[in-house]
Amino acid sequence: MTSDFFLEEADQWRTEAWKIIRQRPDVKFFLLTKRPGRVWDCLPYNWDAGWENVMFNVTCENQSRADERIPILLELPFKHKGIMCAPFIGPVSIEKYLAAGQIEQVLCDGENYGGARPCHYEWVRNLRNECVKYDVTFVFCGTGRRFIKDGRLYKLEGNSLQSEQAYKSGLSYQGKPIDFKLTDDWGYPLDEEQLYKPYFGKRCQTCGMKMTCNGCSRCGRCE
Q: I want to staple 116 with a disulfide (CB 3.0 to 4.6 A). Which of 27, 64, 83, 111 is the partner?
């Protein structure tokens, strides 16, 4: 999820990536792009109506990008669809798109780069309220380096601090569950006890990403 799966530079290795995704129907894959217009030409020959283990997301950092990319997203053949408003640099309303009933998850995060543009609390709250109306999971991942609330600018350096403040805001919302219908190699559904269960350490408990995270890798750096 840290790269654009459909950028042109990925054309040389994407076919191999599709094969790996197809070989692991027991694993969820999170694909992200700001180039939904390229997707049709990049899907594998055996894609059909989509694969159950793939969550496809488009980035929508402001309203113009949302209105450009989400209509394309709604026309693409994916079983699971989401929206990522990151970096969140302008107010975004997606209610008319949520009403279509295809969007299962919305994530947002402020900007983290040098010269970061501010993210406003009101933008996040309004986006969250639209998701709540349609019972769609909303994850406030982080505030970004510059966050404005009640007219006050907060300078938040460090991803951990930004994520913790997003968690403390209480804006994230758990909507209706996403059913990925994962299977084993033979196509048989996995029982609850066979599914991967993420582990969350002490520092994970106040992380804004927890709701959509695969859990801690237990690298030991938190000890």
A: 111
Q: What's the total number of domains in the chain?
A: 1
Residue 108 to residue 142: CA distance in whole angstroms: 7
207 lies in some domain? no
Cβ neighbors of 73 (< 8 A, separation 6 or more) are: 36, 56, 58, 81, 83, 102
Tell whether 131 is covered by a domain: yes
Reply yes or no on whether the pLDDT at 12 is more than 90: yes
Beta strands in the chain (DSSP E): 29-33, 54-59, 80-85, 103-109, 119-120, 137-142, 146-149, 152-155
Evaluate whether residue 82 is within a structural domain: yes
Residue 211 CB partners (closer than 8 Å, separation 6+): 137, 139, 172, 174
**54 contact partners, CB below 8 Å, separation of at least 6:** 21, 28, 29, 31, 78, 79, 80
Q: What mean pLDDT do residues 102-116 have?
A: 94
> What residues are paired with 107 via a beta bridge?
84, 139
Residue 91 lies in a domain: yes
- Confidence (pTM): 0.93
Structure tokens at 40: 């049709």
Confidence (pLDDT) at 150: 95
Check residue 52 and report its DSSP letter.
T
For residue 87, say if its preceding peptide bond is cis, omega within 30 degrees of 0: yes
213: buried, middle or exposed (CB in 10 Å: 19+, 13-18, 0-12)? middle
